[in-house]
Design the sequence.
């Protein structure tokens, strides 16, 4: 049972990390330029 | 320095050659008419190469689809493009090596019918602090698809921009650059050449107002997924009794839900509180009540160990769906606002007053007896007498809607609203003030704010009352028998009636309707248009500039390709030096083909006759004539010998008769209101399939207004002469090529070479209406059944966890189906 509780905490920490990355991404305006970012793979190598 | 500016300077030098009258030098910066730019900056098409390369031309027999935009090519054009704007941008993309644009663009994009009216002044750039700081946030009009984003990005890299951000959904550009090394004006001029119109962002720092909602949505969605996974073991059979695991799962769910309600829910609580304080029935009120009740009830259940009244996962699902719906709604509103930037043609209109010293004065402050200097292309704000000894040419199209170039001799009266066509500035003395002028009476008045749609008002008022009454009734019924059960029933009624389906379906429906209209070339500029459209019983159409394009069009553009190089240069020199509609049509076609403006000639306009152009090859003359029946000709001659003649036509929107018939099939009356003479109006009416009684010619602005006021009407018009009628219409619309306050105040704007968008507009409004009422009926039916279950004490958190997302998905799917074409 203790293992389950530890896993729950681990999942919460992972979820918190995901949220933190999401917040960072939004503040970095990645969401605003999502279409522009999606075109990056089409760019020629420099 | 951009090509356009070089050309402006070269052309200004040419002006000095011929304009020997003792007038002050034209003040180009003071010209406030972006919809009719001065010929001196009338070079929106740059040439990336010194010599224009041959254009890809498709034979007319097979030219069904425009090479640039993918829309149908009218029969009047045989060059494979639907308009000169598409031709221009296609050529520029090709010259810049950006042919990849056509691999990325969708099958159809909006045609560039308003290309030559799209260009806006960049005068604001000199005074903008961001230009010196190397940081600009701009609103941009014209981005349609991923191909546009790609092209804008490529052009920035080519010019050496440090960092560029393109928000295609909202039409925003953010530029970071080194002001010493990057020519930001040149870059923005290049964007304008490619058809993208920029202006400083009205949102200050350029922050996306919906970004806060996106953050809330993301955080709440993550919490929702976690609380749902914590609830799942209980739904699958895990006993509530005893054990650390149960306590941890419930405890964590409560903590996470508290974070979600505190962070995401505060958006609705704040708005509901403000709505209550101002006495406004807003949809956020039932949302906030449902959210607070569900959370408070679950909190109570947690404290009392009542798992049968704990709805933590449902609270999160509800909150996430509400935030998603609100995010969609905000983005749609913002995108619509950006799709068409407003024009500053009239709202900031000024004129140069000469006494006691030259200065800019707003139109509203122009008094009788004041001496004014009119710049070429500008409107005369009040009735005035022309001073000096020269005859100048003016156009009354702003007032009548019809192209009526006419010569005004010195001492004669210039009418208010007349636009100066001649290249020389005009000195006038006003005969009356602006307030008493005919122009002031025609300027549009600001519309009041729209009320909330009926559906929302009705929902909010009735919904809140019924929900609270049902919950109170359940509490009162169960309390004498079982107080614990009474509390559980009270909470479950409030939870089950959370307006989850409506909260997501209504914004979704509006977003889909907006996208459907955008594909047809329609942009909604005011709220509530589709709701008001249901009241419309009559459609009135203006003729010139609305059913036809605003400019004349060369009957056969291939004639230009057949001219010798010297002849083309002379034609460009003569046509580019005049604002006459015939000259403008020739100029547009030449500019679209990349013909550079010659810098070695001198032009002189002879009012009422044409333009004389002198260069090393000889003396050229571009003569023109416009007949009352709408036909126009131009003839280019050298040293008295005719070199070429050109026919010009008024282009009518395609699919007119079919569109009129579809409107009739929808039960709508259709009519034509025009200030033009009856023979031309009758011709147009016949072409549209209208009876003689449905077309009215020689209408004054007041006549149009009276007709529109007779029945609930949709009015389409394009000029000041339509402003009164547009103001009285239930729904008003203007073409996108019209750049004025009239268009800015219209409910909708259209940019299409076909009239097929008009019945599509009504179809969309009806589909939206059906979707909204269908959703409402579903929501009420669903609630009646589940409230019955809740009142009988049979409702459970598991049932809630199943029904709430399922009902939301059902209404979302039904909405998508209803609005899918």
Sequence:
């Amino acid at each position: 049972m203790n293992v389950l509780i530890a896993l729950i905490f681990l999942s919460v920490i992972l979820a918190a990390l995901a949220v933190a990355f999401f917040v960072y991404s939004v503040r970095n305006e990645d969401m605003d330029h999502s279409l522009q970012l999606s075109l990056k793979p089409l760019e020629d190598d420099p | 320095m951009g090509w356009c500016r070089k050309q402006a300077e070269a052309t200004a030098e040419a002006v000095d050659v011929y304009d020997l009258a003792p007038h002050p030098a034209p003040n180009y910066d003071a010209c406030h008419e972006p919809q009719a730019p001065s010929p001196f900056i009338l070079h929106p098409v740059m040439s990336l190469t010194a010599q224009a390369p041959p254009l890809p031309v498709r034979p007319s027999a097979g030219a069904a689809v425009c090479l640039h935009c993918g829309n149908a090519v009218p029969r009047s054009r045989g060059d494979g493009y639907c308009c000169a704007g598409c031709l221009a941008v296609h050529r520029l993309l090709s010259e810049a090596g950006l042919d990849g644009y056509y691999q990325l663009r969708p099958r159809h994009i909006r045609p560039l019918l308003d290309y030559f009216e799209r260009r806006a002044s960049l005068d604001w750039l000199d005074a903008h602090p961001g230009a010196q700081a190397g940081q600009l946030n701009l609103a941009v009009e014209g981005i349609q698809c991923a191909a546009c984003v790609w092209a804008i990005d490529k052009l920035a890299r080519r010019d050496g921009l440090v960092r560029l951000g393109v928000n295609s959904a909202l039409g925003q550009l953010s530029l970071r650059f080194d002001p010493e090394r990057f020519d930001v004006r040149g870059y923005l001029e290049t964007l304008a050449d490619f058809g993208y119109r920029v202006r400083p962002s009205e949102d200050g720092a350029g922050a996306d107002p919906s970004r806060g909602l996106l953050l809330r949505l993301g955080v709440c969605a993550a919490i929702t997924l976690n609380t749902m996974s914590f609830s799942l073991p209980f739904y699958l059979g895990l006993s509530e009794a005893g054990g650390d695991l149960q306590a941890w799962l419930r405890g964590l769910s409560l903590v996470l839900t508290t974070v979600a309600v505190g962070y995401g829910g505060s958006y609705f609580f704040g708005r509901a509180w403000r709505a209550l304080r101002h006495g406004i029935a807003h949809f956020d009120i039932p949302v906030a009540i449902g959210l607070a009740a569900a959370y408070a009830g679950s909190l109570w259940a947690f404290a009392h160990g009542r798992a049968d009244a704990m709805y933590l996962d449902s609270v999160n699902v509800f909150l996430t769906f509400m935030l998603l719906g609100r995010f969609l709604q905000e983005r749609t509103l913002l995108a619509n606002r950006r799709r068409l930037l407003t024009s500053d043609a009239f709202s900031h209109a000024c004129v140069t007053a000469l006494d006691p010293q030259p200065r800019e004065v707003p139109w509203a402050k122009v008094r009788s007896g004041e001496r004014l200097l009119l710049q070429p292309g500008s409107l005369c704000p009040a009735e005035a007498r022309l001073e000096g000894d020269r005859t100048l040419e003016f156009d009354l199209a702003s007032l009548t809607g019809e192209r009526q170039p006419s010569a005004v001799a010195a001492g004669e009266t210039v009418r208010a609203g007349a636009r100066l066509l001649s290249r020389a500035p005009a000195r006038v003395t006003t005969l009356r003030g602006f307030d008493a002028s005919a122009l002031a009476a025609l300027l549009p008045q600001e519309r009041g704010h729209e009320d909330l749609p009926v559906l929302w008002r009705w929902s909010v008022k009735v919904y809140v009352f019924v929900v609270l009454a049902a919950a109170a009734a359940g509490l009162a019924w169960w309390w004498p028998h079982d107080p614990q059960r009474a509390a559980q029933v009270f909470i479950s009624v409030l939870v089950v009636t959370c307006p989850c389906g409506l909260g997501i379906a209504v914004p979704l429906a509006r977003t889909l309707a907006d996208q459907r209209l955008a594909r047809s070339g329609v942009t909604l500029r005011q709220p509530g248009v589709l709701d008001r459209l249901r009241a419309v019983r009559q459609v009135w159409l203006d003729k010139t500039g609305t059913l036809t394009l605003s400019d004349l069009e060369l009957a056969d553009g291939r004639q230009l390709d057949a001219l010798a190089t010297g002849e083309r240069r002379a034609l460009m020199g003569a046509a580019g030096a005049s604002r006459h509609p015939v000259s403008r049509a020739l100029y547009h076609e030449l500019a679209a083909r990349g013909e550079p403006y010659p810098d070695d000639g001198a032009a002189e306009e002879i009012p009422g006759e044409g333009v004389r152009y002198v260069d090393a090859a000889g003396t050229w003359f571009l003569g023109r004539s416009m007949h009352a029946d709408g036909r126009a000709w131009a003839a280019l001659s050298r040293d008295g010998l005719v070199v070429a003649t050109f026919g010009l036509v008024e282009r009518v929107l395609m699919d007119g008769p079919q569109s009129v018939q579809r409107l009739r099939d929808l039960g709508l009356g259709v009519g034509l209101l025009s200030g033009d003479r009856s023979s031309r109006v009758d011709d147009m009416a016949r072409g549209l399939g209208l009876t003689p009684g449905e077309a009215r010619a020689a209408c004054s602005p007041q006549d149009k207004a009276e007709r529109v006021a007779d029945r609930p009407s949709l009015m389409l018009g394009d000029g000041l002469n339509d402003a009164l009628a547009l103001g009285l219409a239930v729904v008003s619309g203007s073409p996108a090529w019209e750049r004025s306050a009239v268009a800015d105040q219209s409910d909708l704007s259209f940019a299409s070479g076909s009239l097929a968008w008009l019945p599509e507009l009504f179809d969309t409004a009806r589909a939206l209406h059906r979707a909204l009422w269908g959703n409402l009926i579903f929501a009420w039916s669903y609630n009646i059944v589940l409230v019955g279950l809740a009142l009988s004490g049979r409702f459970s958190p598991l049932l809630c966890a199943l029904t709430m997302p399922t009902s939301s998905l059902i209404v979302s799917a039904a909405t998508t189906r209803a609005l899918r074409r």
Observations:
- The radius of gyration of chain A is 17 Å.
- The longest helix of chain A spans residues 2-27.
